[in-house]
Design goal:
The structure is a homodimer. By secondary structure, the first copy, chain A, is an alpha+beta fold. Helix content of chain A is 34%, strand content 25%. In chain A, α11 packs antiparallel against α12.
């Protein structure tokens, strides 16, 4: 069994760890030999995810093509599919994570709850004041394609600022999704794995803390009540069927007290699921491989009552290096440190640390303490909570 | 942090999985590019563990040299140490696993319990009848160096057979350890990790089933009573100090009802510790890396009350291939399948499967069921017990 992975970031790197354990041969397509997974893979091909020749060559040497990221060429993938190449998730499924407008239309078609939205094509003329009238100020403008980790998302306060952002995005050739800004009580994420034929497993819903559009921590059970978690998990199952998912998908959700709203979809292992490596019987990376190879999926049960996973970011200039911080981080009881093999740079995501335990509060404090030892600045709002 | 591993078998492969997670750079020295770890490593050097040039080149490019196996050149390692190369475990520690005569002398020096023994040098003359008089018939003859997985161990019934084995081994240039054959009630193993400076962690003692000198399953807690387990763990700690261990060591023990006897030592991650990947907070592979890099050691707590780990062996000609058996194995609830990337061959160790749970009997049945799906023949005596 041989899998080709387009992209060589940390998701590919962690997928390779699972592939090694399962005895699965894996090849990664990296843009440069310095990328996270290119540093650990035994089989690396160099090429862009948009390079037809590179993608075709990769497809020719593997049983299934899958992905580390969503910056892919859907037309090329669709052409390969029609030639008989096995691509999972499929280009039709991927469309819903590559293109936020397609995702919102999907939600509408399946009556999935989301904020009110308006789709603005790359060359559509739009009256921004009318848009504000409809959605309310401030409103959210998102690049339909190409954004990630908070990039490509703008919260605008009035018509002048809105018009400027729309002009800029349209000039860059992208469509726009305008959404009503909702009052978020908390953010949740649900991870689901699905096999061709429909076998589906769902991990328990997690609470995530996003600061500046970037995921800082994942808590389980966090403050999510079981009823809400159950509704979130049911939504994830419904979406997995609607998009005919094969592989792992993350569904990011807003809890707005009245309603649970779909925020984003990712058709791959996801930051909100890194806790599964140490806190679940089967990790998201292993189940992604099992799903795309059409093998039975593994249990998504937790291995402990509580899990906290905290992202490691490069601190400001002069912060300790990862090497210097490692002893301090590993001295934290139960800290599972995962590093991505990247050079430290202020604000760069370098890894994560997961702690499991009896009690979410303790696991969270320990995980932050290990992340801080590795140079991660603790955001003020989180620091106050874990004090 | 950069580690060089001499040898590229499955132990190196699984160590690489942990190195990837910890962001540790690793290089393996393989004899051929087809070996287990050479198939997954991003950095492979080709060379024999006895090739001075290859070993020196490896040492020059890493922070610490460690091992996948014990078929190493102690004199070469000792020379490197005196030149300042960091080698863990050290050549002095390794001597006690490379050479069974040295290990027995160690036991004697430290009053560690073992069978009565006689050491016979490669050119010593010995009266085999006297030997039988002293140790009793049948007695056990072991090649002092070079044996593994039951190879190099002979149980002989009388003087004629004994003389023949001794002649053969001496002709091959190896010394011999002659031991009284003991009545084994069960076999145990204890895994310990120790850092330079002495920080030591010990995993709970396991029961192992050896059939034909080959480990077939590892059970935890198995039928080992807590008092016996505690004594075994104390012995392992004592030995780790006596050999000034740095890294992971496995201590294999015989329970003879009256006494717990030291059987073998291995100065590396060991088959009896594969359960730690899925059943312990920290795996033996991760703690081996942490120890040789002088980083704080991780918790050895179990993640479930019971664990069973069963080795996967190639079945007779015509057995299903691993690829064919994978769906059946992964359909077993909670089965963690680990394959080593080796071609199937009858009797060849190809992987292992670990199941954790509330109850050792259930975990054992499930683990055997997954191993059987992958072509492993269930030994009659075990089949009867799990029926």
């Amino acid at each position: 069994m041989r899998v080709g992975i387009i992209g060589a970031g940390q998701l590919a790197r962690m997928t390779l760890e699972s592939a090694s354990a399962l005895g699965i041969d894996a090849v990664v397509l990296a843009e440069t030999p310095n990328e996270s997974a290119a540093r650990t893979a035994s089989q690396v091909r160099i090429g862009s995810p948009h390079d037809t020749v590179a993608i075709r060559a990769l497809a020719a040497e593997v049983d299934v093509v899958t992905f580390d990221h969503e910056l892919v060429d859907l037309e090329l993938l669709s052409a390969l599919e029609s030639e008989g190449v096995v691509v999972w998730p499929s280009s039709r499924t991927l469309l819903n994570s590559v293109d936020k407008a397609a995702m919102r239309r999907l939600c509408e078609r399946h009556a999935l709850p989301g904020p009110i939205f308006v789709i603005i094509g790359a060359s559509d003329r739009v009256d921004v004041a009318d848009l504000g009238q409809l959605l309310g100020w401030p409103l959210v403008l998102k690049a339909a394609r190409g954004g990630y980790d908070g990039r490509g998302v703008y919260i605008v306060d009035g018509p002048a600022e809105g018009a400027r952002v729309i002009d800029e995005l349209q000039a860059a050739g992208t469509g726009i999704v305008a959404e009503a800004k909702v009052d978020i009580v908390k953010e949740l994420a649900v991870l689901v794995a699905r096999r061709p034929g429909g076998e589906t497993v769902i991990w328990p819903a997690v609470e995530t803390a996003q600061i500046g559009g970037v995921c800082r921590e994942v808590l389980l059970p966090g403050s999510v009540d079981p009823d809400l978690a159950e509704r979130a998990e049911a939504l994830a199952r419904q979406i997995a069927e609607a998009v005919d998912l094969v592989g792992v998908m993350a569904v990011e959700l807003f809890d707005t007290t009245e309603r649970l709203l779909v925020n984003e979809l990712a058709m791959r292992p996801h930051n909100s699921g890194h806790w599964t490596q140490d806190g679940s019987v089967t990790s998201q990376f292993e189940n992604h491989l099992r799903a795309v190879l059409d093998l039975p999926l593994g249990s998504t049960s937790m291995t402990a009552p509580a899990v906290a996973s905290v992202n490691i970011f490069g601190g400001p200039e002069g912060s300790p290096s990862l090497d210097d911080g490692m002893a301090g981080a590993l001295a934290v009881p139960g800290a599972h440190v995962h590093l991505y093999g990247k050079e430290t740079r202020p604000g760069r995501k370098l890894g994560h640390v997961t702690v499991t335990g009896e009690d979410a509060g303790t696991a969270r404090r320990l995980a932050w303490s290990a992340a801080a030892a590795l140079g991660t600045e603790v955001p003020r709002e989180i620091g106050e909570q874990i004090r």
